[in-house]
UniProtKB/TrEMBL annotation:
It comes from the Eukaryota. This is Adenosine deaminase. It comes from Perkinsus marinus (strain ATCC 50983 / TXsc).
Amino acid sequence: MISAYEFFKSAPKVELHVHLDAAFDTRLLYEVAQRDLASLPQEEPAPWRGGSVRVREQIAECEGFDEFSRIVKMRAEDVVAGQLDRDNSGNL
């Protein structure tokens, strides 16, 4: 019989991770973003768009929760659209 250490050492490994898209309550995210806007990054890379996103500027310009929610969801839609474009072009 092998030890627990040897068993776990020899067992296949998997990567455990969480995709943060849709993992947060959008209303809570909006409240925190409004309260702590200065602590958010100025800009973040956006490889799905081939550029970057001006995080603080876009959040500061939101005129309420509905607009913020649209911006948050837009990123996920961009990723899906980009994947569909690659699939349709025959390139994966």
